[in-house]
Amino acid sequence: MTKQNEGKFLRLAAAASAVAALLLAPVGAARAEFPDKPVQMTVLFGSTAKTIAQVLADEMSKSLGKPVVPLFKPGGGGAVGYTHVASQPADGYNIVWNSNSISTSHLRGNMALTYKDFAPIARISVESLVVAVKGDSPWKSLKDIAAAAKKSSKKLKVGTAAKGSFTHVTAAAIFDALGIGDKVIYVPLGGQGKVPAELVAGRLDVAVQFPGQFVSFVKSGDARMVAMTAGQRLAAFPNVPTAKEQGVDVELSMWRGLAAPKGTPTPVIMKLQDAAKKATESPHFKATLAKLGANVSFLDHDAFGMLIVKDNGRLDKIMKGLGLEKKPKS
């Protein structure tokens, strides 16, 4: 064999060996198992939403073996964060800490995206809203607020988060049911704890927000919670009656959960779902939610998906009835 032929033979043999190695390699060896790098969790709101997200991310990191890193992207009633996540690859490395805001933000016209642009992973928790007044206010119930509003020539200043947000929608539903919808001015202040601070400062008459934001003010006597929007009283606040107990037929709660861009592979969704479930079973996670007045309420990706569809229809009807729905921006 000439040196030229010998070299050719060796090159062919090496190529054949490489092909054989690939054929004999285990299926999936060329693709690293998810996750092989940190997972980014986009958080849409501050205050209790941010606190719960941080604890959830820490607990999920333990199960996944890789860090789950919160990325804070507020704005537009959730639109900024949703738009960011929807633009990322559908590979499970970018997820969103979502809520009913996926519907309210779209229905309000803040974004063209809808719940259909995301793959549900799991519902994690449910939070009620509260109606609060200053600690020295003579108002002890929703009926007291309504009676005072009807007698006054001035409109009530009611603080909520962003215009068209879930807190705004819920507040409007309550005051409309009380028959004083035309006696209210809604003051949008965002979700960074500004609402209770403005109430205590006397720049608001009433505030509607998550109970966790009022805890310190209630303890100091600077604020009083007069109603819950949940179906039943919360264990953390047993002395605060529900709106329904006071004859106001409004029952609305904020769910929070996780979602990924549409098209994320099912095995990846399942792995994230399982990690989320383990996180909700953590004593630390449960204790954190209890302090904030939120309830652990896990639903798997299938049940969560059905809930989102049902909730979207409900909010669509409510917002249309309140005149809060707008054509989404393209």
Explain this structure to me?
By secondary structure, the chain is of the alpha/beta class. The chain has 2 domains: 157 residues, D-Maltodextrin-Binding Protein, domain 2 (3-Layer(aba) Sandwich); 117 residues, Periplasmic binding protein-like II (D-Maltodextrin-Binding Protein, domain 2, 3-Layer(aba) Sandwich), CATH 3.40.190. The protein contains 11 helices and 11 strands. Helix 2 links the parallel strand 1 and strand 2. Helix 2 crosses helix 9, helix 2 packs antiparallel against helix 10 and helix 4 packs parallel to helix 11. About 6% of the residues have low confidence.
Structural class: alpha/beta
In total, the number of strands is 11
Q: Give the uncertain stretches in residue-range form.
A: 12-30
CATH level-3 fold name of the largest domain:
D-Maltodextrin-Binding Protein, domain 2
CATH C-level label of the largest domain: Alpha Beta
Q: Provide mean pLDDT, rounded.
A: 88
The CATH superfamily label of the largest domain reads Bordetella uptake gene, domain 1
Give me the number of helical elements.
11
**In percent, how much strand structure appears in the residues?**
15-25%
The shape, in one word, is globular
Secondary-structure element order, N to C: HEHEHEHEEHEHEHEHEEHHEH
For the sheet with most strands, the description reads: 6 strands, mixed
Spatial sequence of strands, sheet with the most strands: 2-1-3-10-4-11
Q: What would a concise description of this structure say?
A:
The protein is of the alpha/beta class and 330 residues long. The chain has helices at residues 3-24, 47-64, 79-86, 101-107, 142-151, 166-177, 194-200, 215-220, 266-280, 283-292, 301-322, and strands at residues 39-43, 68-72, 94-99, 118-128, 130-134, 156-160, 184-188, 206-209, 223-228, 253-261, 294-299.
